[in-house]
Design a protein that fits this description.
Organism: Pseudarthrobacter humi
GO molecular function, one term: hydrolase activity
Number of strands: 19
Keywords: Hydrolase, Signal
Protein name: Glycoside hydrolase family 16 protein
Helix content: under 10%
Number of domains: 1
Strand content: 35-45%
Shape: globular
Pfam families: Glyco_hydro_16
CATH topology: Jelly Rolls
Mean pLDDT: 86
CATH class: Mainly Beta
């Protein structure tokens, strides 16, 4: 059910180039109270009120006070990231990728912090050469040494979502995979604390990293990307849709609530 209209250097897995203003104006977002979202980690685990984010309840380019939209080569030099490929339609942010690899990505100016909680409501579809990614990226851009947290990523199959926790200068990874219809909206969340990193889908824990040596060493920020991975198959279009992005204050990871079976 659609929410009330309320409430990765920055870019992808490998980024270059500078950010330039979008070629069209950004409307001023409306300010309204945020309603709780069912099947949300924030709601299920009582994360409280968001400290920052974007409800995408306006029309035009992404709010320039909140986002840096990339104008650069695409992931691993494939295609390009163009500001013209991302827009807000009054209820969601949409990135459109063309068959020739013209796509988009953007990094948040808000919640640039060490430790915290982030949640996005997102969906994607189209050609399998396009990968939808929601990432925590190091503020200083020192990749791979300072890590990367891909807490919702597709890798060529829109029926599977993956979590990749990148760490160390050798770009080592811990990962998880979950069958999921990514073409439908789901709530993807990550909780990063000194104790570890926990990932959630629709309020249910599905990833956990408790080795503190694998945690990012410094502040991170949210990025949203639709990355192009061309292969030998025919090229097609792709799309990433984001209903909202919300950031919360840091806290210790909270176990997913369990239900105790009734007694005899």
């Amino acid at each position: 059910m659609k929410k009330l209209r309320v409430l990765m250097v920055l870019a992808g897995l490998t980024l270059s180039g500078c950010t330039v203003p979008p070629p069209f104006a950004t409307a001023t977002p409306t300010t309204t109270a945020i309603a709780p979202t069912a099947d949300s980690a924030a709601t299920t685990l009582n994360w409280g009120t968001p400290t920052a984010g974007d409800e995408f309840n306006y029309v035009g380019a992404p709010d320039a006070t909140k986002w840096s939209v990339h104008n650069s080569a695409g992931h691993n030099g494939n295609g390009v990231r163009s500001p013209q490929q991302v827009t807000v339609d009054g209820s969601k942010m949409v990135i459109t990728g063309t068959p020739d690899g013209t796509t988009a990505g953007m990094g948040a100016k808000f919640a640039r912090q060490k430790y915290g909680r982030w949640e996005v409501r997102a969906a994607g579809s189209g050609d399998n050469e396009y990968h939808m990614v929601s990432i925590l990226w190091p503020d200083n851009g020192n990749w791979p040494c300072d890590g990367e947290v891909d807490y919702a990523e597709t890798t060529g199959d829109w029926n599977v979502i993956k979590f990749f926790q990148h760490y160390s200068c050798s770009n080592t990874q811990t990962s998880a995979t979950k069958a999921l219809d990514v073409s439908q909206f789901h709530n993807y969340a990550v909780d990063w604390s000194p104790a570890g990193i926990v990932g959630y889908v629709d309020g249910v824990k599905w990833f956990e990293e408790t080795n503190t040596a694998h945690l990012p060493p410094g502040p991170m920020h949210q990025t949203l990307q639709l990355d192009w991975f061309p292969d030998a198959t025919a090229d097609g279009a792709g799309e990433m849709r984001v209903d909202w992005v919300r950031a919360y204050a840091a806290g210790d990871p909270t176990p997913t609530p369990t239900t105790t079976p009734p007694g005899p």
